[in-house]
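Hi W., the flavin-adenine dinucleotide complex you wanted:
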Amino acid sequence: MIPAEFTYEVADSVDHALSLLAGFGPDAKLLAGGHSLIPMMKLRFARPSALVDIGRIASLSYIEDGGDHVRIGAGTRHHDVHRSSLLGEACPIVSYAAGLIGDPQVRHKGTIGGSAAHGDPASDLPAVLLALGAEFVITGEGTATRTVGASEFFTGPFQTAIGPAEMLTEVRVPKTGASTGWSYLKFNRRAQDWAIVGVAALVERSNGGIGSARIGLTNMGLTPLRASSVEAALAGAGRDAIGAAAALAADGTTPPSDTNASADFRRHLAGVLVGRAVEEALGH
Ligand code: FAD
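Structure:
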């Protein structure tokens, strides 16, 4: 398919991108790696009147130590997130999950900012960022910034807290200490496919058992979701509680039925994967 006609401009800074965006009006879109937006345009699910290309803004690509968190520029490619030694030490679930996205070509073009801003509930990083309680730095006209927590960021299917004249400029992920075990399990039929269901687990170990757990679900509803019933059942529990807690994984979810799996199969899968992810997190 061929996209509908659009105007195209390359931005050389955040300021420049925001002024182009404001000038083009609400039908314009930012183009980062283009690996979600261009397919949507080819299918004519998206018909932006103008594209502002932010893929060459070097200042948007960085991974830096922010003290108790790691600052990741929105334009950082999945490949660089995956290979980052800082993230590998300080927040390994993020670098690990980035390495499971698509194939090498997708990971060399797609960005963490594009993945978050796209708001696709089937994408891998959003559930990870939600489980972590990441923060999103959004920049608006005049380069004023505001910071939104992960629980308020993903507002609906393909919708986020980013306004039409704003852009995501940074993602902040908290460092996970030595007492926090982690796992991201992605179930798909072929290695490079999207998750049929994915589970991100962060488990705080305490006295040989579980202190607290944070569980994120991929492709189990209209947005990435937290498995709150599982988290409540695991708080302060022993390892023997994992099976019963995992059985609650689909509580409050609305998984899709599609050519890959029925909603019922996804509910079943969520329970299996949550149990395995919590076990794996306790071992990490
Ligand atoms: P783009 O496609 O450029 O943009 C996506 C949306 O975000 C657009 O609406 C755009 O306007 C907006 N946007 C981009 N950057 C910003 C910003 N800084 N501020 C505000 N809005 C912004 N993803 C997975 O999670 N798992 C997979 O297994 C997976 N497999 C894939 C396989 C294939 C074959 C392809 C083509 C893609 C796959 N993806 C997968 C998607 C991939 O991760 C995308 O790169 C990512 O979802 C979007 O990032 P992008 O930089 O390409 O964004």
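The mean pLDDT is 96.

W.
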